[in-house]
Structures are given as C-alpha cells and as structure tokens.
Amino acid sequence: MPGVSEPYQQLIEEVDRLSARLAARYGAHLTCRAGCSGCCHHHISIFEVEAAAVREAVRALPAETRERLRQQACEVREREAREEPVACPLLVDERCAVYEARPVICRTQGLPLLIKIDGGDQEVDFCPLNFTSPGATDELDEDHLVPLDLLNLKLAMANLNHCREAGLEMAESGQRRLMSDLILDS
Questions:
Q1: Is residue 1 part of a domain?
Q2: Could you tell me if residue 49 is inside a domain?
Q3: pLDDT tens, 150-164?
Q4: Global pTM?
Q5: Which of 30, 123, 145, 149 has a Cα at 20 to 30 A from 169?
Q6: Nearest Cα to Cα of residue 75 among 159, 177, 184
Q7: CA-to-CA distance for 12 and 107, rounded, in angstroms?
Q8: Which long-range contacts (CB under 8 A, 24 or more apart) does 119-123 make?
Q9: How far apart are alpha carbons 91 and 72 in whole angstroms?
Q10: Residue 95: which pLDDT band, with cuts at 50, 70 and 90?
Q11: What's the domain count of the chain?
Q12: Does residue 131 belong to any structural domain of this protein?
C-alpha cells in the first residue's frame, strides 16, 4: 500500500500470510467469501496508522463511491445516536470499498482467534457462521490460530512509530478513529 509506514506494511504482509495459511488449513469450515459481510456489521474504530491507509484508499475511490460512503457515514452517525445497530460505512453492496486497505481486525475476522481473557486464561473465538459442522472445532490447534494479543501489540508498535514519524503528540497515538469520521474527513 503506497503511503503507509514500513512497519505497518510488514505487519499487514504478516497478517495476510497468516490469514492465507489458516484459510488453507480450515477452508472446509470457513464460510467467509466475497459478499459475506456478517462480521462487518459493527462500527469499529482503528489506530491512526490504519486510519491513514483507509483515508488514502477512500480518497482514491471514484467520486460517486466517495459520495455514497459519505451518505452512509452520516446514516451511521444518526443510527448510533439512536443506539441502533449499524454496519460499517465502508460497505458497498456487502463488499468493502477499501478492501486492500482494510485494517488488521478486518483481515482476521472469521478466522479462529486466540484471545487472552481475565485471569490469564485463553479462549478461541471465530465467526459463528464458521466451524458449524459436528466436530469441526476438534481440528483447531494452538499452532493454527490468530494470536490476537501479539498482533495487537505489533499493531500498537507500528501505530506508535507512524505517529512519531507524522509528528503527532504521544496522547494522539492512543486515540482511535471511527470509520465514519475517516470517510467524512476524506
């Protein structure tokens, strides 16, 4: 992705390799495909390093697509104000308009995620549409899971590096950006 920092680009490449490896291993149990947006029905926030990539991708879209995204971003804000469920404002016909620039969380959705919970325990989470056949989860093993905490740590480090390079204040490095804000600011 042009315009993104080297550490973030390396992280994206690492995540994509891991995702491809897990998709190959668990393909029979994954329903994830183009047009499936079940995991995209949340309004997520992202770090500035990811926001920079998304902003750049939004700006590169055709004018009519950018206008549609702006309208959707406004609708998302209105629905959130009424505390109604919302979909990601970057969806166009159930597909991500900035798929190549999508954040880490979007790149790993649906795959089996290894998550640390309170007390140091770990659990595995994945899209409820996946691993539905009897015994499917028996095939899961620790060597073939997305180590979410490790990826989040790497993402935080890439974000800190990006913020330093961009001359942003330390306090800004921890702030998260809503997708609707990125669209409306682009």
A1: no
A2: yes
A3: 999 999 999 999 999
A4: 0.89
A5: 149
A6: 184
A7: 9
A8: none
A9: 9
A10: very high
A11: 1
A12: yes
E strands, 93-160, are 95-96, 113-116, 122-125, 146-147
Q: Residue 66: beta bridge partners?
A: none
CB 110, CB 126: distance < 8 Å: yes
CA separation (Å) from 66 to 55, 82, 184?
11, 25, 9
Tokens of 184: 């409306």
The string of DSSP letters for 35-76 reads T--GGG-S--EEEHHHHHHHHHHHHTS-HHHHHHHHHHHHHH
CA-to-CA distance for 53 and 170, rounded, in angstroms? 20
78 belongs to a structural domain: yes
For residue 107, the enclosing domain spans 6-185
Whats the size of the chain, residue-wise? 186
End-to-end CA distance of the chain: 17
Other C-beta atoms lying within 10 Å of the C-beta of residue 107: 18
What are the DSSP calls for 125-140, one per residue? E--TTSS-STTGGGG-
